[in-house]
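Subgroup meeting minutes
Present: P.N., E.W., G.H.
Scribe: E.W.

1. P.N. recapped why we're keeping a running log of single-chain structure predictions: easier to compare across weeks, and new members can see raw inputs and outputs side by side.
2. G.H. added today's entry (391 aa).
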Amino acid sequence: MTPGTGLDGLNRVMIQNIAGSLESLRPIDGQPSRIGLAEWSRHEVTLATTNSVYGEHNPFKDPKVEQAFWEFESHIVMILINVLPTLTSRSSCRAREVVGGAFRKYFERKHHENGFMLVRNRYNTGKKYKISIVDIAQHEIGDAIAPLINTAPATFWVLFYIYSHPEVLEKCRQEAGHIMRVSIEEGHHKRTLDITGIKQNCPTLTSTYQEVLRQRTLAAEIRQVMQDTMLDNTYLLKKGGTIIMPSAVVHTDPAVWGPDALDFNHKRFAVKAGSSSTLSLTPQQKGVKRPNPKAFRVFGGGTTLCPGRHFATTEILAMVLMFIMRYDLTPVEGRWVAPLTGKTNNAAMLMEPDTDVQVDVTPRQGFEEGRWEFSLAAGSETVFELASEDV
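Output recorded in log:
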């Protein structure tokens, strides 16, 4: 799923959904809209993503299916352990039946023929090897996990960090102004955000996004030792052994990231290795250690490199971009307090908030009226460097 014509079609459906979901936050009768930021992010990411992938007859449009999917996801570890799951994880098993049944109807009615080519190819491959529709539907539940389980919390954390750091919010808005086109239609403003210009024009937003992922990722890469290997003349890795490399260890190593490895630095990724760009770094920040692209392991690498990283990144940045340009957020508690993450699902690659953050949503002053939309240049092939393989 590399940037280009094929991915553009998926992105266009997704950004249309995002624009519509953000329009629904417009306050009624002048009263702020109150939302749980994590719950809102999860719901909107779910619909924007699955509408893009499954098309007009997306099973997740049914609230019962959406709710069942997240119930299944929250207890998936018990099913993976597979010790009498119908007894130890009854709610998750029942939820899986609901989602599986919805997918079965989706495939039986041939709705996949109007879905994204990846869905069509998965179905056709299954039929080629005489796999039943029931099993294809059950397998699709697992395929739906990949684009949803990490994108939803990532959206929440990027919004949380930007709004809880006013200086970052202001800088992101200034840069976003470079990719916003304003016109007048029928006496009303129409504001268009060009998402193909994010990489070149919004370094603070993209750097903040990567820094949030660096701090909030729980992924671990697993490799098998193919032959006896001595590391640093000290550690012998025996053939046939298994190596587990938690990304959190790599992402917080001062030897890799510098003495501020544990701090949130929204400019960290704005200074690329081998680049002369420094944004507006202070003298103190100019001495900051530049990140090695090989040390950023959020999306894995090698044969396990996440194939959907560009779609997920476009979705998250598009949602955050329009959100910060349209609305102000005020925490109901009066201050921004980062929720704990101790209850994060063990199958997740990104920390999930234990509790939600209630916020009031109000339109930005001077941006209250008019229509908002996205634009996406045809055949966009700009590659966002998310892994060393993208460099």
